[in-house]
Design a protein that fits this description.
39% helix, single chain, 6-stranded antiparallel β-sheet, Globin-like
Amino acid sequence: MVRLVRESWAVAEPRADKVSELFYATLFSIAPVTREMFPVNMEVQRSRLLRALVHIVQMVDRPDDLLPFLRQLGRDHRKFGVVTQHYESVGMALLSSVKAYAGPAWTDDVERAWAEAYTIMARAMLEASNSEDGPAWWNGTVVERHRLTRDLAVIRVQPDYLVPYHPGQYVSVEVPQRPRMWRYLTPATAPREDGLLEFHVRSVEGGWVSRAIVAHGELGDVWRIGPPMGRLAADRESGRNILMIAGGTGVAPMRSIIDHLSQWGENPRVTLFYGARVQPDLYDLENLQAIAASNPWLHVVPVLETESTLPNVEYGTLADAVTRYGAWPDHDVLVSGSPGMVRSTVSRMLVAGTSLDRIIYDPFTVD
């Protein structure tokens, strides 16, 4: 099944934009009500759902990674009002759009393989959704805004009720400036008794939501916050030390985990490589160094791709800096940042000899 799915998608993938267009056209034709689940402007959305669906289908031979994520995703999708019929419509649209561009590679066996893979995915998501009795989202009010640079802001949101996330997890958010455009953000602090959430948001090119938050967000804005997702976490009882690798605002989940660990006097040794292209992008370095000064188990290594006046800095990419020290045996490795940074860092570590089952990252934190 997995081989057939991957081989047929390889034929269609060069025309993925066309597959995506046909996918949404088919979905909205056979299930018009689903159009209301998506933003008016589909420019950014166009390939997002299809890309995620294909990625999931291709992971069906990795159930230990796939099923926990699918269950989280099923709970998260309750915010759209998704029901069983919607899964059926999405499956029909997915198969018909891939079939149209797979050409002769699409056979009866291939169609059965795609149908079986999608059924596994949909069943896991539906079971999780139907078993969940918590809210589909929480409302939260923006109570603080600190614009650190032209394209970076720290936002603090006070939810009406506690959001039950674990340190390192991320949530989806919808802001009033961009209705129906849900995006993933990671709380940068461990859960607090008052429930306050801190988010680090960088405005990126083509980022409709991030640009709206940084440039146009206001105090008093009410956000919707979806159920927590993700598997980044630190195991204090494993007997292994921890290597954290964070690029840019990817430091947020690491900050949350470090904040959580700091309540104990003794912890595994934690080494954080915190990287950026230029020095100003290491916006949280001073705070992290202050935490390390009072917590001897934490060591922070700044990494830059350009020259700077910072002391004790490593130069190059994060992948360069980390692999200079070898394979990091006996470490749990947590990686967070842009998709490109995560891919390159994980690939380089595998080449260096790091075991894949020791590397933890969330591949869906952008989309």
